[in-house]
Specification:
InterPro entries: ABC_transporter_permease, MetI-like, MetI-like_sf. The protein is mainly alpha-helical. The protein has a single domain, classed as MetI-like fold (Orthogonal Bundle), CATH 1.10.3720.10. 63% of the residues lie in helices and 6% in strands. The chain has a two-stranded antiparallel ribbon with strand order 1-2. The protein has a two-stranded antiparallel ribbon with strand order 3-4. Helix 1 crosses helix 14, helix 3 runs antiparallel to helix 11 and helix 13 packs antiparallel against helix 14. The chain is globular, with a radius of gyration of 24 Å.
């Protein structure tokens, strides 16, 4: 295999050419995919179908579900709390993407270095990945307590200290806690992708007189394009399905100011014993997350990405 570099539109790219071996390529058979396919069908497709069926029924968890047709869907259309929860879910998701993407990108590229101090700091920074969302939410609930937490000792910064008592403060806390927990995960993705960038690109750019900043904008960032799209899709799906953080930190309050769709689904199904209505909300979330992901893939051109070893 031969590798060459060329500069196109101010960016360095790698051209790889290789002759294929005359030996036949051994490709894995369909049997290799059977275990994963069965797992996906049993734990993803079947539950989703059951939820879709349940959304057309009335069921309180006891007895047999009663078919009600479009009653649950008609109720959702005229449910103000449901409409508000969708907007809140989208708002928190967008804020999460805006905050986490630049942080994780810069930290991931920085952590890709091989110096010992970077490795130690990266290991410390990745600690939130080892904690559950519940533990993290309980931790920040205690730290942000207006009577005994950090706000009680820093009135000059937090005012009355009750950040969770107003909508803007509560949403800010949810976005911050989500970023604190999940940015290390996306940083790890960018770190691996940055280390996979061919060093010959940086060597050629350095010989051409490009500094660190120019190398980042013209080499690192373009090479991480597909990684960025993957990370953003994960952020979107995770943001729309956030539940435990809201349950522990705000419980949808104050009032319904942080009642996102996932939490409203919980309220409907497990507090109001309306599993039909809760199933309808769950199906709406699945549809919205799927549509947004498909739009991101389509607009970004991610669906046209091909691997040099595709099909092996």
């Amino acid at each position: 295999m031969t590798t060459t570099t060329q500069r196109v539109a101010g960016r360095w790219t790698v051209n790889r050419s290789a002759g294929r071996s005359s030996a036949a390529v051994i490709r894995p058979g369909f049997a290799w995919a059977v275990p994963a396919t069965l797992f996906f069908v049993l734990f993803a497709v079947v539950p989703l179908v059951l939820v879709a069926v349940l959304s057309f029924t009335s069921w309180n968890g006891l007895g047999s579900p009663q078919w009600t047709g479009m009653a649950n869907w008609n109720a959702l259309i005229h449910d103000h709390t449901m409409i508000q929860s969708l907007w809140l879910s989208l708002l928190i998701t967008v804020l999460g993407v805006v905050v986490q993407t630049p942080l994780s990108l810069l930290l991931g590229v920085w952590a890709a270095g091989r110096q010992r101090n970077r490795a130690v700091l990266s290991a410390v920074y990745f600690i939130p990945l080892l904690l559950s969302a519940t533990a993290i939410s309980v931790l920040w609930r205690a730290l942000l307590d207006p009577n005994f937490g950090v706000p009680a000792q820093a009135h000059w910064l937090f005012g009355n200290g009750n950040l969770l008592g107003m909508q803007s403060g509560a949403i800010g806390v949810l976005v911050f806690v989500g970023a604190w927990q999940y940015t290390p995960f996306h940083t790890l993705i960018y770190q691996g992708a940055a280390r996979a960038i061919p060093q010959v690109l940086y060597q050629a750019a350095e010989m051409d007189g490009a500094g660190t900043i120019r190398q980042f904008w013209h080499i690192t960032l373009p090479q991480l394009r597909n990684t960025m799209i993957t990370s953003m899709i994960l952020m979107v799906v995770g943001g729309l399905t956030t539940f435990d953080t809201v349950l522990i930190l705000t419980q949808g309050g104050p009032g319904t100011d942080t009642t996102i769709s996932a939490y409203y689904m919980y309220q409907k199904a497990f507090k109001g014993f309306d599993f039909g209505g809760g199933s309808a909300i769950a199906l709406v979330l699945v549809v919205i997350a799927t549509i947004i992901s498909l739009i991101v893939v389509r607009v970004s051109g991610y669906d046209k990405m091909r691997s040099s070893a595709e099909g092996l």
